[in-house]
Amino acid sequence: MALKAVHVSDVPKFDHVPENSSFSLYSSRFSKGADVGRASFKRPKFLVIGHRGNGMNLLQSTDRRMKAVKENTILSFNTAGSFPVDFVEFDVQVTKDGCPIIFHDNFILSEENGTVYEKRVTELNLWEFLTYGVQGESGMVGKTLLRKTKDGKIVGWNVEDDDSSCTLQEAFHKVNPSLGFNIELKFDDHIVYQEEYLVSVLQAILQVTYENAKERPVIFSTFQPDAALLMKKLQNTYPVFFLTNGGNEIYYDVRRNSLEEAIKLCLEGGLQGIVSEVRGIFTNPGTVTKIKESKLSLLTYGKLNNVPEAVYMQHLMGIDGVIVDLVREITETVSNMMKPSEEAVSGEGQIPGQGKPQFSQTELTFLLKLIPELVQQ
């Protein structure tokens, strides 16, 4: 199915679930968790979301955990799901022939006859995209898969547990159905997209989601402001969150340059929440109150979310959840820090040395003032 350019006013809104789909407000995993049905997002608990599944791949890192499982794969999602995470986050792009696939980078790199070449992912047909990397069928050999690091170095995409690339439809069918999906709508920061193209891409993703999600909780998120607004206009079933660096980087589009602009965009477009780089929150903790007063939900991402103390501080600040790479470690942290409140409700005593420390309001205020200085170090 090729992408067809249409005007947004001619696009039908997906306000109602097709008859062959069965939705509920939340799945069994969320019986005490998040309400993410019908474009709502309520936080009965602190959420942990696996970044690209069980964590992103930092191939140049000396930390083996950052290259243990191939990111954005069925294996990575189900590995994360073996721990008490609520969602997995992953990146979705649409191929030239209209198929939503899961892949983070804008370009796919390979090597042939000693020459490295790259192709834009969205200019590949599905069959070609799937020929890169390890193959799902026994005996099949895929094209080499390389990756460019932030400093421009090209390295082999070598991980301990590899898996083949996959489509969004495959993920819906092969990943534990009680595991929520945080679907990042991935676009290139360096391209100015026409509305017709954005609508075509979003339609393709929505079609697969409606046909396959069933009772699975789904959140859409994106750094692309126009895509976020359009996704909200096109449907009223799933929450839409706006992704922001929180002022850590400056972009041509001013809507991306601060948490204040993110709040403004969400309120004007009727979005449900913000996903901010955690440093943007820690350097400006007062914005948490503004976001909450605006009736918006707030999630965070970033390397600091792999630090248990940073996660705990966010819980105290009223943030709704964190996107993390170290899934096992952070789910253990969150489980422990939640124990005291659960034991208090049941009337049981607190276990010495476990759970969360107790802070007075004065101490918490001091910590919140101290955090911006610490982040700048």
From TrEMBL:
- Describe the location of the GP-PDE domain by residue ranges: 46-334
Q: Which PROSITE patterns match?
A: GP_PDE
What protein am I looking at?
glycerophosphodiester phosphodiesterase
Q: What is its EC number?
A: 3.1.4.46
Q: Which GO terms describe its biological process?
A: glycerol metabolic process; glycerophospholipid catabolic process
Q: Which PANTHER family match?
A: GLYCEROPHOSPHOCHOLINE PHOSPHODIESTERASE GPCPD1 (PTHR22958:SF1), GLYCEROPHOSPHORYL DIESTER PHOSPHODIESTERASE (PTHR22958)
Keywords assigned: Glycerol metabolism, Hydrolase
InterPro entries, alphabetized: GDPD, GP_PDE_dom, PLC-like_Pdiesterase_TIM-brl
Catalytic reaction annotation? a sn-glycero-3-phosphodiester + H2O = an alcohol + sn-glycerol 3-phosphate + H(+)
